[in-house]
Design goal:
There is one protein chain. The protein is of the alpha+beta class. It folds into 2 domains: 110 residues, no CATH class; 131 residues, no CATH class. It is built from 5 helices and 17 strands. It has a 6-stranded mixed sheet, covered by helices on one side. Strand 14 and strand 15 form a beta hairpin. Helix 1 runs parallel beside helix 2 and helix 2 runs parallel beside helix 4. The longest helix is centred in the N-terminal third of the chain and has 14 residues. It starts with a strand and ends in a 5-residue tail after the last strand.
């Protein structure tokens, strides 16, 4: 096995005929997902890592446990004939391989212990949140509204209409239709300010998990291209943000509604800038 690469808070290894991405967390010696991660989020990070490093990504088959629509919007990949398989494993990992040989040196992959009680509580909270009978008391976002803006939010696509606008919109404040020209914002930004929303102050979409996590942290950031935006921090953050911190944007689970996981970009302190 080659060196383990830490990317987006996950661990990536390369074998001669495959790439594998793992969650770093373990509970009772079993590898598990972090509080807002799943097969879809780690698959997205694997593809982004490969694309960032100039690796040609040809996928022919995607495991049903990965939301391919979200994967496609976040990475731009299309399915091709005779491509590699993107396969989920029970040890909170995803393998991209052109063969059925999925042997990897799991014992050599580093791990971080996750509090068992907290892990179980968050897992049960997600289960409750995704129950079709669970109705949000906050602002309702239909699947159509969610899907219309998802690509721009996952890929940080902004409008270029003389000034850079994010997220994209149809008209400006004067009612003038905006150009559809677009650019991709940098995958990093600088923290301008931050706040921790108490469990009581968090939006109702997060009412089940917020008390368990001790509230939710949000950051206001500024991109080098000019736009500013507010993002949730990842749920498995290791420290509070500091004004001036560089953060990277990763795809994570946001909340559940109508029995469906809503994904989005979250901020994560960029350890390479520390």
């Amino acid at each position: 096995m080659n060196d383990i690469i830490n990317f987006h808070g996950y661990l990536i290894s390369q074998e001669p005929d495959s790439f594998t991405i793992y969650s770093p967390y373990v509970v009772d010696e079993l590898r598990v997902f972090g509080h807002d991660s799943d097969y879809t989020t780690i698959a997205i990070s694997l593809i982004k890592h490969l694309l960032n490093n100039g690796v040609e990504v040809l996928i022919g088959l995607v495991d049903d446990r990965i939301n391919f629509a979200v994967l496609k919007m976040a990475t731009g990949i299309e399915l091709v004939e005779n491509g590699s398989h993107l396969q989920c494993r029970e040890d909170a990992s995803v393998v991209m391989s052109s063969t059925n040989n999925l042997t990897t040196g799991l014992a050599k992959v580093p791990s971080k212990p996750l509090d068992k009680e907290l892990y179980q509580s968050v897992k049960e909270a997600w289960k409750t949140e995704l129950d079709i009978r669970n109705i949000s008391q906050g602002a309702y976002v239909s699947m159509q509204q969610y899907n219309e803006s998802l690509s721009a939010r996952l890929s940080l696509i902004a409008q270029n209409d003389g000034t850079i606008i994010w997220p994209p919109r149809q008209m400006n404040s004067d009612g003038v239709t905006l150009s559809k020209g677009s650019i991709n914002l940098s995958p990093n930004a600088s923290v301008m300010t931050w706040t921790n929303l108490s469990a009581a102050g968090a939006p109702s979409e997060f009412a089940i998990r917020a008390p368990i996590l001790g509230g939710l942290t949000t950051v206001m950031v500024e991109f080098s291209e000019g736009p500013k935006g507010v993002f949730l921090m990842v749920d498995d953050k290791e420290r509070k943000p500091i004004i001036g911190d560089s953060v990277e944007f990763v795809v994570r689970m946001l909340y559940g509604q109508e029995g469906i996981i809503r994904y989005g970009a979250k901020a994560r302190i960029d350890s390479s800038h520390l």
